[in-house]
Structures are given as structure tokens and as C-alpha cells.
């Protein structure tokens, strides 16, 4: 069964899978569930002649769609179109009956019903804002090439939540593995070899054989590595690891069918106003080191300059503060009733000193959904 949307049709990988499937087993039954109306896209030779079911958003007669799908999977003739809804309703009724819990041997005692349990919509806050960074990321990973992606922003802009968003929402439009790397030393290891050992642990391979293990892994699927956020810019270890040690592993892995994407978040501390003024005078008079933001910018520039051809560096747009306009869009996307939006946005922003606080408040305050 192929669930076909316009986005599905535009992707080379899904087209490739469909073609391989059709060539390898031409007599096997195939059903295409069209999520866009027929005619809006060219379906191609492998889909146009199948038992296609137009099951688009807003379809009124889902029972008829279900019956066509069942017939496509079983090979049964669907019969006259006028009977599809009735047949589908019967089939859905059988499924519902089979899935219903067994009746209790004894009736429940009379009394008040237990209220429906309410739970937070875990992860809903991850979809707030970050459209600029997210769109850039998805466009970058769409291309099959090795790359180092730098995600920068001041401390408090929720770098880690963006990594969680990648884990939760990055589309599996082709085979892909996502691995999180945690440094064993704080704020990060002092030798590139230790950083490489942490990567090997995240990929669950032997450190000594990381190159061959990467070659084997990249022969089967893309690998996305999410590094822990860096906020230490005076140690050369991370710079050497990103621009030398890691590209060396890729050279050892050789040319592979799939690609390695490394995401490195970078954040810097926000100075208070007195410290900013004092730092400005110190730099003016005594040539003291720059602010944390200047040190981070210099670190990012050095990565870009020293990046190896095997792992070129790309920068996402800098993370910025989540504001009221972003929350308005979030409410619209999640269909929050307009009567509740003003109070919800006020409560989310109240006392929030950073984007991390805003996202935490969204997760805490967003209307709960009933789980029956």
C-alpha cells in the first residue's frame, strides 16, 4: 500500500522504491491511497494503472474508501459503487467489534463515573517558531552529501529543544538514523580523540573501527549526528575534531551511497549591561578579549575556514527570541479557539526570560487532550 501525497510524488527516493518494487514483483498487488485529488499530479506508469483510492482530507464517505482499500489488498472485486459505503461500514464494524474490550463478567456498581484522564500533549512545544531554521535544515538534508551544520544563538534560545525537534520530526523520506552525542567531560573533552570516542559510543560501535563502521552504516542509510551544545571556545579540541578528526573518519569510510550530517549547536552567555559596558572599556583601553558573542563568532568563522572538503560547514540562521507573533502562529497551527488565545499567550510570556522559558510554558499550559 502506497500512501501518495504531492510531497511523496516529488521525492526521488520514494519514486525509486516504487520502481524497484514494481520491477521485482510485477504480479504483486499494489494499492495507491491518493491523499491529493487525482489529476493534480502526474502519477507515472507504476501508479496510474493501480487500484487507486482517492482518500483525500475532508472525504465524507470514508467507509466507501475503506472498502476500496480492502478490496485492493485482498484482490476482491469491489462491486457497484453504490454498495461501497454499506460494505465498508460492515467491515469497519467488524474491526471495531474485534478491537472492543471484553465485557466485564459483573456489571459496574452504580455511582459517579471516573473523570477522563488528562495528559499533556508531550512535545507540542517543539513546533513553535523556528520556521526559518527548520526550513533551512530540511532543505540542507534533502541533498545527499556530507555536511556539518552549525546552529548558533545566545544561551537560553533552546538549542537542545531544536535537537529534540530534529529527533521527533525530521522526515524519514529515505533510510536515516539519528544519534545523539553527549560529551563525557564538561564542558567538552580536551582531546579530539575523546570526542571521537563519544561519537563511537553514540553510534554503538568500536572506537578503533569507527571508519569502517561508518562505511557500513552509510552504505545502508543516512546518518544524522546531533552533538551536545558547545559553549567553550578557548579549547582547540572541538575545532580540531570537527575540521580534522571527523573528516579523517569520512576519508577512511570512502565514498558511500548515503550521507553523514553533523549538527553542532553553539551558544554563548548573555552579559549583563554593567559587564557589557565594562568589557567594552577593557577592550578599548587594554585590548582585552572580546565578549562571549564575539568569541563564539570567531569560533564559528574558524570552523568555516578550516572545514575539510569531506565535511563542509553550513550555518543555519541564528536562533532568536520567540515573540508574541510566533505564538499567534502557533495557536493558529494548533487550532486553539480564538477566545482562549489572548490569555494563553499572556500566560506563556509572563515571567519568561528566554525562549527556553517560553517553550517550557507552552508545554505546561497548552490545553490538554483527552486520552480515552
In short:
With about 375 residues, this protein is of the alpha/beta class.
What profile does the largest beta sheet have? 5 strands, parallel
Give the strand content: 5-15%
- The share of residues in helices is 40-55%
The shape, in one word, is: globular
SSE string:
EHHEHEHHEHEHEHHEHEHHEHHHE
The total of beta strands comes to: 10
The strand line-up of the biggest sheet is 6-7-8-5-9
Quaternary organisation of the protein chains: single chain
Measured on Cα atoms, how large is the radius of gyration?
27 Å
Poorly predicted segments: 102-120, 277-285
Structural class: alpha/beta
N-to-C span: 29 Å
How many helix segments? 15
Mean of residue pLDDT values:
81
Can you describe this structure?
There is one protein chain. A 5-stranded parallel beta sheet has the order 6-7-8-5-9, sandwiched between helices. A 3-stranded parallel beta sheet has the order 1-2-3. Strands 4-10 form a two-stranded antiparallel sheet. With 372 residues, the chain is an alpha/beta fold. α8 (192-203) crosses α10 and α14 crosses α15. α10 links the parallel β7 (222-226) and β8. The longest helix is centred in the middle third of the chain and has 18 residues, at 236-253. It has 15 helices and 10 strands.
Amino acid at each position: 500500500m502506497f500512501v501518495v501525497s504531492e510531497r511523496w510524488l516529488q521525492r526521488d527516493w520514494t519514486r525509486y522504491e516504487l520502481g524497484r518494487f514494481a520491477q521485482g514483483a510485477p504480479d504483486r498487488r499494489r494499492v495507491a491511497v491518493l491523499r491529493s485529488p487525482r489529476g493534480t499530479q502526474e502519477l507515472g506508469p507504476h501508479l496510474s494503472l493501480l487500484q487507486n483510492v482517492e482518500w483525500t482530507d475532508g472525504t465524507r464517505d470514508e467507509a466507501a474508501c475503506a472498502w476500496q482499500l480492502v478490496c485492493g489488498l485482498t484482490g476482491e472485486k469491489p462491486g457497484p459503487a453504490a454498495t461501497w459505503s454499506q460494505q465498508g461500514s460492515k467491515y469497519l464494524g467488524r474491526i471495531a467489534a474485534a478491537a472492543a474490550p471484553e465485557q466485564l463478567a459483573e456489571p459496574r456498581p452504580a455511582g459517579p463515573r471516573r473523570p477522563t484522564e488528562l495528559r499533556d500533549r508531550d512535545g507540542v512545544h517543539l513546533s513553535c517558531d523556528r520556521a526559518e531554521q527548520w526550513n533551512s535544515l530540511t532543505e540542507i538534508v534533502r541533498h545527499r552529501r556530507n555536511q556539518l551544520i552549525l546552529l548558533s544563538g545566545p544561551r537560553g534560545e533552546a538549542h537542545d529543544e531544536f535537537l529534540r525537534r530534529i529527533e521527533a520530526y525530521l522526515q524519514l523520506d529515505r533510510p536515516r538514523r539519528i544519534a545523539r552525542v553527549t560529551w563525557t567531560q564538561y564542558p567538552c573533552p580536551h582531546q579530539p580523540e575523546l570526542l571521537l570516542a563519544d561519537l563511537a559510543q553514540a553510534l554503538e560501535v568500536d572506537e578503533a573501527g569507527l571508519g569502517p563502521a561508518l562505511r557500513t552504516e552509510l552504505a545502508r542509510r543516512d546518518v544524522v549526528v546531533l552533538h551536545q551544545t558547545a559553549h567553550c571556545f578557548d579549547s582547540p579540541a572541538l575545532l580540531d575534531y570537527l575540521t580534522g578528526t571527523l573528516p579523517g573518519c569520512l576519508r577512511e569510510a570512502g565514498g558511500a551511497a548515503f550521507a553523514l550530517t553533523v549538527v553542532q549547536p553553539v551558544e554563548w552567555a548573555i552579559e549583563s549591561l554593567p559587564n557589557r559596558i565594562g568589557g567594552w572599556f577593557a577592550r578599548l583601553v587594554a585590548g582585552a578579549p572580546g565578549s562571549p558573542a564575539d568569541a563564539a563568532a570567531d569560533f564559528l568563522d574558524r570552523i568555516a575556514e578550516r572545514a575539510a572538503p569531506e565535511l563542509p560547514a553550513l550555518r543555519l540562521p541564528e536562533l532568536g527570541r520567540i515573540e508574541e507573533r510566533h505564538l499567534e502562529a502557533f495557536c493558529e497551527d494548533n487550532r486553539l479557539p480564538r477566545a482562549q488565545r489572548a490569555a494563553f499567550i499572556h500566560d506563556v510570556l509572563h515571567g519568561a526570560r528566554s525562549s527556553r522559558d517560553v517553550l517550557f510554558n507552552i508545554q505546561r499550559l497548552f490545553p490538554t487532550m483527552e486520552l480515552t
